[in-house]
């Protein structure tokens, strides 16, 4: 977790605002693990991108004017002339050729486009847990997990090692949580509501992981089968989904910081 996270009722501010696209589809980390090495920074209405052996590039962008409307204004002076595209039924603003060249050079893929979502909270995520298969909750969730959960995964990886060049332990960055708390393994499985720094969250589902967790975020390379292999052995749930951590949505606005006290309702 960063030193401070800013929240609206729609989730983390600016979360999932940009995507990468190519050939009228979105690029996932599974298809392009190297994308994990791109470091974004939002400052003064600019998106600043950095990556290894690349000069930083700045992209002018529109601010969020009203989070309650859940819309980005795309008619400002800086972005009004940009092209709007539709991918998988969702509208995006194409951020232009200059950043496309930068991305294509680094990722070594032709014509990669930087796409800004017009409605950043229109994604739907499946809700798995407590026997429900409800779909349609907005993709505004934050992932929360505990240090003990990661410790348990690493212990099990060493009890039954995969062999070869597989890692014997992984760090929390493999799972990309928003919030990490101190506590025993998988204590978060039993939480229904959480309060951090006067911001209350409703826990809505287990967090399902794909083979993206096999990508080392420091190198952008897959390290083999782990930790997915170990998780599949003891954290497999409905529809063969592999769970680690929980999804939660904020009930209001506010900020959370490292060191905040955690209040839990089960």
Automatic annotation (TrEMBL):
InterPro entries: MoCF_Sase_C, MOCOS_middle. Pfam families: MOSC, MOSC_N. One of its GO terms (molecular function) is pyridoxal phosphate binding. Residues 112-265 form the MOSC domain. PANTHER family: MITOCHONDRIAL AMIDOXIME REDUCING COMPONENT 1, MOLYBDOPTERIN COFACTOR SULFURASE MOSC. This is MOSC domain-containing protein.
């Amino acid at each position: 977790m960063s030193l401070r996270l800013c929240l609206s009722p729609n989730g983390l501010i600016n979360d999932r605002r940009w995507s990468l696209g190519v050939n009228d589809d979105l690029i996932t980390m599974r298809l392009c693990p190297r994308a994990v090495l791109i470091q974004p920074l939002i400052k003064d209405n600019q998106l600043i991108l950095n990556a290894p052996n690349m000069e930083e590039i700045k992209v002018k962008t529109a601010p969020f004017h009203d989070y309650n409307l859940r819309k980005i204004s795309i008619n400002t002076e800086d972005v009004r002339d940009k092209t709007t595209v539709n991918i998988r039924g969702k509208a995006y603003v194409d951020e232009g050729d200059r950043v496309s060249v930068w991305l294509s050079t680094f990722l070594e893929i032709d014509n990669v486009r930087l796409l800004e979502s017009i409605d950043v909270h229109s994604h739907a995520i499946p809700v798995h847990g407590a026997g429900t298969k409800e779909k349609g909750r907005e993709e505004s969730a934050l992932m929360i997990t505990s240090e003990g959960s990661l410790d348990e995964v690493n212990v099990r990886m060493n009890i039954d090692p995969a062999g070869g060049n597989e890692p014997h332990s992984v760090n929390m960055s493999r799972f990309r949580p928003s919030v990490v708390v101190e506590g025993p393994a998988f204590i978060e499985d039993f939480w229904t509501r959480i309060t951090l720094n006067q911001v209350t969250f409703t826990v809505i589902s287990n967090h399902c992981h794909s083979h993206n967790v096999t990508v080392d975020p420091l190198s952008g390379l897959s390290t083999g089968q782990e930790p997915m292999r170990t998780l599949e052995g003891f954290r497999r749930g409905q529809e063969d989904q592999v769970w680690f951590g929980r999804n939660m949505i904020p009930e209001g606005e506010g900020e959370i910081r490292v060191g905040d006290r955690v209040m839990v309702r089960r």
